[in-house]
Amino acid sequence: MLNSWKIYILAIGSFLVGTSEFVIAGILDVVASDVGVTVAAAGQLITVYSLSYAIGTPILIAFTAKMERRKLMLAALALFILGNLVTISTTGFAMLVGARIILAIGTGVFMVVALTVAAKIAQPGKQGSAIATVLLGFNLALILGVPLGRVIAGSYDWKIIFTGIGVLSLIAMFVLLLAIPKFEGETPIPIREQLSIFKTPRISVALSIGFFWILGYTIIYTYISPFLITITGMSDRMVSIGLFAFGIASLLGSQVGGYGADKWGIPRTMIGGLLLHSGIILLITAFSHSVMFVMPLLMFWAFFAWSTGPVQQVYLIGMAPEASGIILSLNTSILQLGMAVGAVIGGMAVENISLQSVGWIGAIGVAIGLIPALVTFSMRSRSINGEQKLAKDNKLEF
């Protein structure tokens, strides 16, 4: 109880950095118009961000492993504030790309260290709850940050969003300096050693599920605002409401996904979630011209899309409990790579086919994730049967 308020401060920080990541999808059309590029080109801001996050974060975390944790967290937040400053000062698309790279690296390092610090200041036996609280702040960015950003961009200059994030982050930086104690660095784990986990086939296949799941999701989500305005015919106000409902449904889906992994089992929950995720995106595309159909389908999409995340994490940890930190870090990088590739594919589809095509292409991307899911669960089943047979044979010998 004594340190719970410190964990909430970390959660507020994660909300701010999370908003900087997610909000761009909600205001993509506004940003594209302001900097004078096509919506497809603006979508590559998500590609650049995700690649920078995926590649830059593990490298920087490895290089700064011995650095005192509070100092590293504050340095990451300072870099993040710089990214916001460059964003509001931007005079063109190239400068905005640079700002997204800075924001991505600052966000990635901050989140890794914030989760580590939260676990260290939590009471014994409460580490999981502390980490969940910090992640809740990041998830709330999708629920509150994105629709709020859409409202601000629709009424004022979109750069006000990043001005506000920057100012609040500066305040958070000083609060963290005063509230968070110093923690020694950790023993560095070389990148080569981290990547060696890919040598286990079942883990490699399982990690690829997240890649295809988030790839298909990102193909359509990157262009969700122009999709809803241009294809569905929603007003700015309706888009904000739709994005808010989307965020709420994603949070509920995440909770139900975790419950489902325990209640119905990992294979059933994950495969069911992927099937429904893919199918609902197809329905959104089929009924894309009807607000009456699209609005509830948006909520179902978010629900089943984000139900996969916690199931995937539980499955990965179960395969390598002794290397849970490494495997979850790699999973995060792979998800960011999936986002990067999804934004590229979505941009190519918008440019060369049509804006509406991102729907069925995204559905195919998610459906492909079913292949590694079925393969890894088949490998899991064979492994369990082999262990049971070995135990039975040993018992008979005894």
In a nutshell, what does this entry contain?
The mean pLDDT is 84. 84% of the residues lie in helices and 0% in strands.
Detail the topology: elements first, then pairings.
Blueprint: H1 4-26, H2 28-35, H3 39-42, H4 44-63, H5 69-89, H6 93-121, H7 127-155, H8 159-179, H9 191-195, H10 201-221, H11 224-232, H12 236-263, H13 266-286, H14 291-306, H15 308-319, H16 324-352, H17 357-368, H18 370-397
Helix pairs in contact: 1-6, 1-7, 1-8, 4-6, 4-16, 5-6, 5-8, 6-7, 7-12, 10-15, 10-16, 10-17, 10-18, 12-13, 12-14, 12-15, 13-14, 13-15, 13-17, 13-18, 15-16, 16-17
Explained architecture:
By secondary structure, the chain is mainly alpha-helical. It has 2 domains: 1-187, Up-down Bundle (Growth Hormone, Chain: A), CATH 1.20.1250.20; 189-386, MFS general substrate transporter like domains (Growth Hormone, Chain: A). The chain is 84% helix and 0% strand. The protein is built from 18 helices and no strands. It is globular. The termini are far apart. The model has no long low-confidence stretch (mean pLDDT 84). Residues 6-384 form the Major facilitator superfamily (MFS) profile domain. It is found in: Cell membrane.
